[in-house]
Amino acid sequence: DVKVTQSSRYLVKRTGEKVFLECVQDMDHENMFWYRQDPGLGLRLIYFSYDVKMKEKGDIPEGYSVSREKKERFSLILESASTNQTSMYLCASSFPDIYTDTQYFGPGTRLTVL
Amino acid sequence: AQKVTQAQTEISVVEKEDVTLDCVYETRDTTYYLFWYKQPPSGELVFLIRRNSFDEQNEISGRYSWNFQKSTSSFNFTITASQVVDSAVYFCALSEANRDDKIIFGKGTRLHILP
């Protein structure tokens, strides 16, 4: 079974803090993704990565950055957290095979910025 | 542009009833993939099914079934004899072939199964 883990289920931070959200997958997947999920807005793609040290902006990258130093790990960084970044953050991974490529998700991190 | 519409924001049914979740999509691609995911209260999105655009056969998996109709651009999901454990938010999604980085999710349908 694919396993995607996220470092925290719940996180509370203060405005202006630097926040790191970690995601690890154990299936040697090439692609990794960060989404945020907000009521009424569904899932929105923040950043994704298709290889180590590679990254691409998604639909809402402003205020975020990412790091992928190792294939299994993809970090989302909030350089200076703001209250409008309070949200549920979901990490996903996939293997880019036309027959099987499907994104598998972690349990999510619910971040509150005070 | 790609778009996924789940018109039903929230549905409540009594246990053992059948329920259908609607999904309508828009794409200009001839090759694409459709997905359904389940998000239980625990928060993790659980993959349910992936269907490619060339395969219009309906799929059945236990109490779950999916009806894919290209003529109406729909990919509906039916739960037969619903159970309380089916309570969750269900997302329909669409991606271009070989570009799963471009998955577009619908806004989800929250399903309540009442005991």
Could you characterize what this model shows?
- The complex is a heterodimer of chains A (about 110) and B (about 120).
- Chain A is mainly β.
- Helix content of chain A is about 0%, strand content about 50%.
- Chain A is built from no helices and 11 strands.
- Chain A has strands at about 5, 10-15, 20-25, 30-40, 40-50, 55, 65-70, 75-80, 85-95, 105, 110-114.
- In chain A, strands 2, 4, 5, 6, 9, 10 and 11 form a 7-stranded mixed beta sheet that branches. In chain A, strands 1-3-8-7 form a 4-stranded antiparallel beta sheet, with no helix packed on it.
- Chain A is globular, with a radius of gyration of 13 Å.
- By secondary structure, chain B is an all-beta fold.
- Chain B contains no helices and 12 strands.
- Chain B has strands spanning about 5, 10-15, 20, 25, 30-40, 45-50, 60, 65-70, 75-80, 90-95, 100-105, 110-115.
- In chain B, strands 2, 5, 6, 10, 11 and 12 form a 6-stranded mixed beta sheet that branches. Chain B has a 4-stranded antiparallel beta sheet with strand order 3-9-8-7, with no helix packed on it. Chain B has a two-stranded antiparallel ribbon with strand order 1-4.
- In chain B, a hairpin with a 4-residue loop joins strand 8 (about 65-70) and strand 9.
- The model of chain B has no long low-confidence stretch (mean pLDDT about 90).
- The interface of A and B includes residues 42, 48, 88 and 101 of A.
